[in-house]
Amino acid sequence: MKTSSTLSSGSRPLLLLALVFASLAASSAIAQTTAFKPTVLHRFTGTADTAQLGGMPMVPPVLAKDGSGQLQGHTFNGGTPLTLVLGQGVSYRLDALKGTGYQARLLGDISKSTTTLVQDAQGKIYGGAGASNVNNDTSANPFGSTAAMFSLQANVASALPTPPVRPRGQLAIDDDQRVYFGGGDAPGTCNASGVLAAGLWRLNPDGSYAKAFDFCQFFTVVGRLQLHEKGGAPVASVWSKTDQALYVLTSVGATGVFDSTQASDNAGRAFGTLVKIDKATLDEGAANNGQLASADQVKVLHTFLRHRDGAPTSVGDRYSTLVEAGEWLYGTSYANAPTAGGVNDLRYGGTLWRVKKDDPASFTVLHRFRDADMLAKDGTAQADGSTPNGPLVLAADGNIYGTTARDGSSLYRPATGLPTPSGAGTLFRIVVGSKGDRSDDIYEVLHRFDIATEGARPVGLSLGATVDGVQKLYGATASGGPGEAIDPASPDTSGNGTVFSIDVPLPSVSFTTPLTASASSALVGDRPTLSWATQNAAGCTASGSNGNTWSGAQQTQGSQIPLSGALSKTGVNTFTLRCESASGGPAVVQTVSITVRAVTVAPPATSDGSGTGTWERNNNRSDGGGPLSPWLLLPLAALGLARRFARRG
Asked: Which of 37, 147, 191, 520 lies at 20 to 30 Å from 255 by C-alpha?
């Protein structure tokens, strides 16, 4: 079930090196020992079962921080439509391990969410709806709708004050519990009052809103076009605690875009940007309605060209994403069409990319879905994924996991034009490399979804807990279910979708250098050294029967580390080191022993030339008996010699 290819370019953060080395060494073994087969926790029934309403989840659920062990999510469908144009989804909750205890509540006027979910430090979950019925006056316009932001606690969704823009895409939350979002649509030109969708907004803990940056502030007029230097509508954001900055992926349409090449072909037509905005700049913008003193305060890390890099988007059911991995960012584009047709042309499978946060020149497309080298596998069980969709996650094994909404194992073949992938979708992994430029990254297809048993059109992943050396990842599929099948006459699928989990086996703790002592035997008063090395250890603790010369917390590796004190206990001394697993699996223990003897000193000769008695130093103490030590006789001999010379004088 696994397809892999070597990727190109980047640098590996030191924080994850130990985990990555172990993962790379075991990557093929992991793929052989587990199929990464999803465990289906729940199958949605749409409106068929009133006790289990819900259907078509568009984003993965999240593990609630309230200690309940529950997953919390929402769906696009499941309830009675609110108006002529507004449907109604549900919020749902279920046990994260067993999938039992499913509970659904209608979202009411919130209608249905169009964003991912984020969770604050207290466990309150936030989401957004691009089209809702909150404060909507249907008498004036029966086809109208309003924007909404909402909170979710204990499966109860509550509408927050109406936001100034229709939220879409991947939300982010900073250390001050402020939620960032954008409009997600691709604006063309900015008028005198600006375009709301081209703003980066934040929701404050008190329920108020502020525009943190107005992308319409900076643009260059070229003829009839506005070339947007910094980008357009935010489609995905990630907050970096390390950098105290927000990284934002934006989308801009075919007109009104910053185009460094001024090219008319789609390989050179810019469709979005990746920018960095630090905390001080965000605060300045929020205090000035998104206006900044200088364009230099927003750092452009990359300008995306449509076919070369892919086009970022968060329109409809399509979610481009990005994730922080130490010094690097990884992300996706949903499609990368070379033609002037629809931006999200499903015939072109999108991209995976990466960039080092402090080096824009490091940007690399590390995989093109269904590129030339993979097209030959279309229609087979080894086909590549297509159209990456929903959040990527950095798992505890140091690797990045994600999903594609489709795969090429099945194809819809129209009367004219290229075939369109219609397979149920894939789970994929980027095995993060150890080279400075990350040119040894590896892309792998870990699993291809079965529409009837596992669902179809997966919508990304979220992180779960780590227990006994295994981390849970959670996801959802937007369609599929019992009795469903891929229709070769259509690129679409039917069914209500599923919630699933994935088990990621983590590298176990082990000794890479056994615990050894510098000597197997020693004398009282000696201070030998110990050496050892481990991998994937969270920490180590010393113990043993050794006169308290080796105890307490120790490093995960050490070379010729002296004991904390001199040996004092005669006989066999034991030195034990127990190292706990960083992944929560079983600990490892090793013991070494040293035989300790008392110090023995030879006695002086007697008058008849023989030596008698044994003299020992144990704990710097003589046991007595026998003639005096030669060392004690030296002063007497010296005194005798002095008197002898005095008489001669």
From this structure: 147
Long-range pairs, 282-287, Cβ under 8 A, ≥24? 282/202, 282/212, 282/213, 282/246, 285/200, 285/211, 285/212, 285/213, 285/214, 286/202, 286/210, 286/211, 286/212, 287/210
Q: Return the DSSP state at 52.
A: G
Q: What is the pLDDT of residue 142?
A: 80
**Residue 340 or residue 446, greater confidence:** 446
Query: Look-up: residue for tokens 């600006």?
Result: 194
Residue type, 312: P
**Cα–Cα distance measured from residue 613 to residue 627, given in angstroms and rounded to the nearest whole number:** 8
Is residue 549 within 8 Å of residue 567, measured between CB atoms?
yes
Range list of H helices, 175-293:
279-287
| 227-258: b (≥16 Cβ within 10 Å) or e | bbbbbbbbbbbbbbeeeebbbbbbbbbbebbb
d(CA 150, CA 170): 15
Share of residues in the chain with pLDDT > 70 (%): 81
d(CA 443, CA 429): 6
Residue 339 confidence (pLDDT): 67
Return the bridge partners of 592, or none. Answer: 575
For 496, how many CA atoms within 13 A lie in the half-sphere containing its CB?
Answer: 20
Q: Range with the lowest mean pLDDT among 154-158, 374-378, 399-403? A: 374-378
Q: Which two tokens stand for residue 640?
A: 């005798």
Euclidean distance between CA atoms 118 and 129, whole angstroms: 14
